[in-house]
């Protein structure tokens, strides 16, 4: 059930990206060919980075759940998101804050968490996606097709669209 809901949300967001890209292409008609090429290469490279990051971290979380590093919760998703430190379940809030600060300050814990999450950050697809982003920039610059404003607009559209989609969800 949860996996089906997640895939529906991903499909809705991808449809939103396509709609925003159509608007970008339409505006590029008036701004010229270099604008279109720069904005589209940046848009697709940014989209590729976003998608590969999403699936890399999703795979990492699924592995942690399967291994038991992340316990399965009996609470619903809304409660987990809004109360990620179990603050409402504990009476002594000051003690909980001290414990959380101690966890954050502990270098060993931080290093272990970094080691566990590096798999999601350095997944092969994510590294390749950043390579595509970098090479597209270099290619456009070398061919004198790069419009830096259009490239930055193309890069920014994906994260802003993802952020906007969070606000307009049902």
Instruction: Report the strand count.
Output: 0
Write down the overall geometry.
Answer: elongated
Strand content: under 5%
Provide mean pLDDT, rounded.
77
Question: What does the radius of gyration come to?
Answer: 21 Å
Describe this structure in words.
81% of the residues lie in helices and 0% in strands. The chain is mostly helical. The chain has one domain. Helix 2 packs across helix 7. It is elongated, with a radius of gyration of 21 Å. The mean pLDDT is 77.
Annotation keywords:
7 helices; mainly alpha; elongated; 81% helix; 170 residues
The gist of it:
With 170 residues, the chain is an all-alpha fold. The chain has seven helices and no strands. Helix content is 81%, strand content 0%.
Topology:
Elements: H1 2-31, H2 33-67, H3 77-82, H4 93-105, H5 107-121, H6 124-142, H7 148-167
Helix pairs in contact: 1-2, 1-7, 2-5, 2-6, 2-7
